[in-house]
Design brief:
With 127 residues, the protein is mainly beta. 8% of the residues lie in helices and 40% in strands.
Amino acid sequence: MEFFSPIESYMVSYIGGGESADNDYRAMITLKNEGRPVGFLYFHRDPASMPIGDALTGRDTPHPQAHLHFLAEDLPRVVDLLRNEAPVSLVYYYGPEWDAGIGSLETAYEAVGDGEMPAWSSPAPRA
């Protein structure tokens, strides 16, 4: 089974408190579609605080919400994806045989090399 939602807007909450902070997260991103929250991305300080899998709340309601978990080091990559790609969708896969679901942020297909710089650069031609 699958929950799918386009993402129209997002808000980043960067959480302070240093090592003594009384929470497991360095940051959280709220994802919205049509003005409603559709997902929450949690960026954990410590891998040990991450749950076994992601979660989907309100599964039997008109407005479910996915909860996805990442390491804090993934925050710049996720923010970069939200800022620079369009469209971006939130997808959550689940089934009765799974202990926990799997969520993802997904872009649309795009042409190879579309707006990307090559990972390598060729040497300048010799005179």
